[in-house]
Amino acid sequence: MKRHTNTMVSMLLVMFGLSARTQAFVEYWQGADTNWGTIGNWWTAGPGGPNGSLPATTDNTWVRSGTATVNAGDSFTVNSLWAQGAITLKDGGYLEITGATDSGNPGYAATYLNGSTFTQDGGTFITSSLANGNGTYRVTGGTATLGGIWIYWGFGTMDVGGTANITITGVLSCEAGFITLRGHQASVSASNLPNFGSNNGAGSVFKAVLDSDSGFSTLNLTNNMIIDPRATFALELASGFTPSAGMSWTIIRTGMGITHTFSNLPEGGVITAGGVAFTASYAGGNLVLTNTAAADYTAWANQNNVAGTIDEDSDNDGVPNGIEYFMGQPGTGFTANPGLDGGHKISWAKGTGYTGVYGINYFVQTSSNLKDWADVPEADVTIGSTLQYTLTGAGPRFVRLKVTGP
Ligand SMILES: [Ca+2]
């Protein structure tokens, strides 16, 4: 192993045309240039200091090629990180880049991804600033605290999913590149997004990947967002996910408003993913997508892959499809028919997604002979999260639920 220093002055001039700063960088490697070890190897084994101690916080680290991994239990604090190779932060690892950003210029960011892929599986990542020039910042877990992030040169990517929790205390700026938010558990917050696609708006894409009806990994901004009118929006559904009819997902939430709209998604515009159409609203400074398909039997059947009409019993459990639809059941697997309790009361569960109206789309009916059925007036039933009715009268009495729609 060896360690040497060189200056980055010439490279900074070439890359950014900025005024020179005198900054000594430290390169770490094992063996030949093409055979780089992991950060753990470098720093615990050698050049960072005697007997495996960590590098001093003034060190500036250049991952020139190859891969560098911060493993569980590793803890590294350095002044700056210049990455051309691949960086991986594993769950249980800690990586902090302490250097100050010079005048907020991304060319002087404490962490610079120069075509590099930074993958955070978990752990803790802290940096005073992150510049992403044609690189990829992919986070699937752990926490990240960024003073600011600039995706500004080439087409950089920020891809966030899983259970990632990212707090950007400054701006999130994507002048040329891609932002992808996946799923419903990740969290991304920033003060504002002053530019999305401003430097190459025709190619910049903001993508959302929905995987659940229970919310979305909303981008939360406490200030505003400016969309270049040439930037576009992309929508995907995670494999196997069918969104419920009538439901909405908040993709971007801002405190002050959104300037312009995505070129392919104007106010009221429709975007389709997985055969499902969503309508966009930017009202109130939030980008909300709504599946405007009617919440009807067909939508329920499509979502649950139930073939057959509302009268059929596709899973042969004795409960017709329409009743399972009413009860919010998936239409597969055994569904228990409710019975009378000791007070002759019967309760059917009523699914939260069921929008039918009593007396129009569903009815409680009674009979004394199982042949002639009469509708129970709405005043005699109790409708909430359950539909309840108490049988009265003498002699044999039968009760059933009839669902006709919507
Ligand atoms: Ca059934």
Overall description:
With 406 residues, this protein is mainly beta. It has 2 domains: 2-291; 297-403, no CATH class. The protein is 7% helix and 40% strand. The chain has 4 helices and 36 strands. The protein has helices at residues 9-16, 39-45, 297-303, 321-327, and strands spanning 2-7, 24-29, 60-63, 67-70, 75-78, 80-83, 86-89, 94-97, 111-114, 117-120, 124-127, 130-133, 136-139, 143-146, 149-153, 156-160, 165-168, 172-174, 177-182, 187-190, 193-196, 205-210, 219-221, 224-227, 232-237, 248-253, 257-259, 270-273, 276-281, 286-291, 345-349, 362-367, 374-375, 381-383, 386-390, 398-403. The strands form 6 sheets. It has an 11-stranded mixed β-sheet, with no helix packed on it. The chain has an 8-stranded mixed β-sheet with strand order 1-2-3-6-9-12-15-18, with no helix packed on it. An 8-stranded parallel β-sheet has the order 4-7-10-13-16-19-22-25, with no helix packed on it. Strand 28 and strand 29 form a beta hairpin. The longest helix is centred in the first third of the chain and has 8 residues, at 9-16. The radius of gyration is 29 Å and the shape is elongated. Residues 1-56 have low confidence and may be disordered. Bound molecules: calcium ion.
